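Figure S4 source data
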Amino acid sequence: MFKLIHVYDLDGVLVDTSHRYRNKPDGTIDLEYWFANRTQEKIAQDSLLPLHKQYIADCLNPEIYTVICTSRAYHALDIAFITATLGAPDNLIMRPVGNNKADSELKYSQLRRLFNLRQFAKLPRRFWDDNPKNLSACRELFDNVFHVPSHITETV
């Protein structure tokens, strides 16, 4: 039986994808550049960040319901990397194809829907993200939020 929910962002929190990430001058992600660099060869160059060890321990703990909540759109290469390199979480929440909501709005709505389920409604929740906007938007859904400093979102 689950006693805790731990939610992790992916890029800049569990995985360093900076070699295939670039911001526009206004601080938003350059999606064209991101999609152009979403190849099996480039994804294979992604490296794990220190917090991945805690994530793996959480996945192995039967009392922790582990979630990856990322703004990445569903893509087979990303899912393959997550399951092969990090290990599958209890729940993988990704951007539905065609959804263009801001990251913070997207994460809030997806996580709120999950936490409204009876089995999760009263469990303590913790959230790790590198984007202060996401942490601010989702703060009311969690008992604890943790900012993970990342050079990917330092200009956001």
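Figure S5 source data
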Amino acid sequence: MDKRKIKKIYQKGKRKDSLRYVMECLQCKKEFEILKRDYNRGRGIYCSNECNKLRKSGKFNGMWKGGYKISMGYKMIHKRLVDKKYHYLVQHNYYIPEHRLIVAKNSNKKLSKKDIVHHLNGKREDNRFENLVVVNSVSHEKHTFEKLLKKRILELEEIVKNKG
């Protein structure tokens, strides 16, 4: 099925190859001209590269999965699904980590790049506000190290209990 919309066809001059089509852009509805040979090559859907990119991004892209994805165990949300006032949290890939967004919304303060949002129970997928705390890098390392030590102690206690 052809998506292109021809508004009018006219010839400029006497040459056969001067046949022109006036098309309507599928994105912005603006009219633009193309040559017949370009129309025959399948062009004439969008008036510019910008409209083409807009039409093939976000929910119009075949790879779109609703604006959510999992990256390194963290749930990420596409910036189009979030209020513009939280777009400062966007990473290089147009996604915002959900745990940072939840803390920013509930604490009503702007998170800096240096702020680390720590999951208290260590489960990255558990993004309840009660499970999240904002820490700096020094105290985050302390929390993580303590958690690793406690886990190792429990493992060693289990080994001693099984042998004894």
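Residues 68-134 form one domain. The two ends are 75 Å apart (CA to CA).
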